[in-house]
Amino acid sequence: MSATLLSVSLLAAATVVRADYFSKDPLVNKVVPFNAIPYQVMTDRDDPRGFQSGYNICNSTTENQNSLCQTMFVNHMDDFCLWAPAPPNSSIADTEGDVVAWCSKKGHGSRIFPAGAITGLQMIQTPSYIQIAGTIKQELLNIVGEFGGELDSGGQDGEGNPMGGLVYSNAFKSNNGNNATYQQAQHWSFFIGANSFCGKICDQTGSNPQGLCQNIYDRLGCQYNAPNNAAAGVFEKCDGDDMIPVGTYIVNGVTSVYHQPAQETIPLGVIPYTPTPAPSSNCVTYTSAALFADGAAITGAPQGGSATTTGASAGATTKGAATSKGAAGAASGSKTGSAPGPSGSSGAAGAWGVSVGALVFAAAAVFAQA
Ligand SMILES: *[C@@H]1O[C@H](CO)[C@@H](O)[C@H](O)[C@H]1NC(C)=O
Ligand SMILES: *[C@@H]1O[C@H](CO)[C@@H](O)[C@H](O)[C@H]1NC(C)=O
Ligand SMILES: *[C@@H]1O[C@H](CO)[C@@H](O)[C@H](O)[C@H]1NC(C)=O
């Protein structure tokens, strides 16, 4: 029997020049109970990168395909969200600070995944986090190009990407199956691009939320940050063990920690380990029709309504450098697009002429399994 597995392994490449500004009030430190969400969680008005472009109070008024909701959820197989651009035809690099919530289920005040947007999904529930990974038809989520990016609760200035993004779940193990109560995830990271995605949200009461949802390995992509067995056309939910913290590896009983070179101008070189997904069990498969019913009537091209474009461009102008980012992305992509492994991105390192944000190279490697 042979099956074709799409390994969701985004290769990511980070910033060339990190902003030297760091927030005095970083997102990751903000404890925001679900019943006390403010209109905008970002408070820092001095950030040279700009200010939060959407909002965190999301309700029936904001639930439409032009929503700028920046509060998202990872709950169940039929109830999760991704961060994706507000305007159509956007690269993650150009919009990372302003991405908005797109969700499978109504009731979150967000955009809804259009029919056919999610083409594969693996959700792993561990004692300390929930991991999702899968494949997408990315144009239905306003994403263009073969580049993706990391969206996380850190960001170059501590404000997160998106700036002011909030993440909640009603499904952490510690919540004991009570769908009616939501816990905030302070540490989270997602990668999206190249028609695939992955993400982890960590339970703040679980083991090592910062280490398990690290956001400092943005050049390494899904294979390292969220090891998974997602496959196009498969929708499955599994239980799993916690992975060992991102970057940590064990050879001959000796534990070591790998640190990614921070600057894009420094090649990644050889990464001293290859991660394998942590053990998983109790996998249950679903049909996509059972999971994405709420978006079944939403078809075709993304909405380009004026609310979307206005909001998004207002956010984008504060960041600048959009044109150089696009150009650098294209140049690097052509050099690295064929490499299935993270070391491939090192070849293009010198070509990144970017000054803002996490510009990321993404590739999905297809393996034939005998
Ligand atoms: C709905 O959300 C919008 C956007 O955050 C907010 O301005 C409005 O006050 C909310 N409405 C209610 C009734 O909470
Ligand atoms: C996206 O951009 C391409 C090339 O610039 C263009 O041909 C296409 O019409 C755009 N699509 C949308 C939905 O804006
Ligand atoms: C919680 O919601 C999920 C679907 O989103 C459902 O499968 C599950 O049964 C619910 N749990 C309870 C205890 O109602």
Automatic annotation (TrEMBL):
State the protein's name: Macrofage activating glycoprotein
Alphabetical UniProt keywords: Signal
Look up and give the organism this protein is from. Mycena belliarum
Question: Looking at the record's lineage, which domain of life comes first?
Answer: Eukaryota
Instruction: Tell me which positions the record assigns to the signal sequence.
Output: 1-19
Region of interest called Disordered, as start-end residue ranges on this chain: 325-346
